[in-house]
Amino acid sequence: MAEETKTTVDTTAQNTEPTTVDNSAEIAQLKADLERFKNANDKLSKESAEYKRQLRAKQSDEEAKASALAEAEAEREAEREALKAELNLLKATNAYKGISDEKAVAKLIDAVSNADHTAIAKFIEEQCKQAVASAEQAWLKDRPPVSSGTFSTTTVEQIMAIQDRAERRKAIAENPQLF
Predict the structure, then answer these.
(1) Which of 69, 123, 168, 176 would be a feasible disulfide site paired with 162, CB 3.0-4.6 Å?
(2) Cα-flanking dihedrals φ and ψ of residue 72, to 5°?
(3) How far apart are the first and last CA of the chain?
(4) Distance of alpha carbon 20 from the chain centroid
(5) Which distant-in-sequence residues (6+ apart) come within 8 Å of 175 by Cβ?
(6) Are 154 and 167 in contact (CB under 8 A)?
(7) ∠ CA 106-108-114 to the nearest 5 degrees?
(8) 131 with 140: CB under 8 angstroms?
(9) Cβ contact 140:117 at 8 Å
(10) Which DSSP category does 177 fall into?
(11) 55 vs 162, residue with greater confidence
(12) 52-95 per-position pLDDT tens digit
């Protein structure tokens, strides 16, 4: 009796595993479904194309001309805008040739072409600050040294007693009020 139970259990375990025949049948079924879906898709695509052809045939000549004119006008408008932008860029490039900083010129041209007034104002402010700073530096450079109000205790005799000629000249330059 114990042997009969074991053989029944073994046969039921074998029945749950799919066989090659079962797999082949399932693959054949899937291929058939795929072919059926492809045929249905092709049929629907043909119908869709036929409906589009019929719609175009029904569309009057006037409607076709109107749509063609509208498309042509849109293309011309886009081309006109591109030419305007290019012309503005050329004008700006010619107008700002005097500015030596290329990055600044590029920013200004971009701001002008986009009509960004805040960027233009910022650029003008930066240029003014740079001009003031460079003028201030030039003024400070040309300005004579300021006397600090302290007097040297060195005398003419002490300066003339310096043996090294370079040091003596330096001392004379530092104390011009003595000579």
Answers:
(1) 168
(2) -65, -40
(3) 139
(4) 59
(5) 152, 154, 159
(6) no
(7) 100
(8) no
(9) no
(10) G
(11) 162
(12) 888 777 777 778 788 889 999 999 999 999 998 888 778 877 77
Helical ranges in 19-116 per DSSP H: 20-58, 61-95, 102-113
d(CA 23, CA 70): 60
Distances (CA, A) of 154 to 27, 41, 165, 174, 177: 113, 109, 17, 10, 11
Q: b/e for 101-138, b at 16 or more Cβ within 10 A?
A: eeeebebbbebbbeeeeeeeeebeeeeeeeeeeeeeee
Are 178 and 155 in contact by the 8 Å Cβ rule? The answer is yes
The CA distance from 168 to 156, in Å, is 11
Q: What is the pTM of this model?
A: 0.33
Q: What token pair was written down for 24?
A: 């082949």
Q: Looking up tokens 């001309």, which residue turns up? A: 65
Q: Rounded to an integer, what distance in angstroms lies between the CA atom of residue 26 and that of residue 18?
A: 10
pLDDT single digits (tens) 133-158: 999 998 888 776 665 555 567 788 88
Phi, then psi, of 13 in degrees rounded to 5: -70, -35
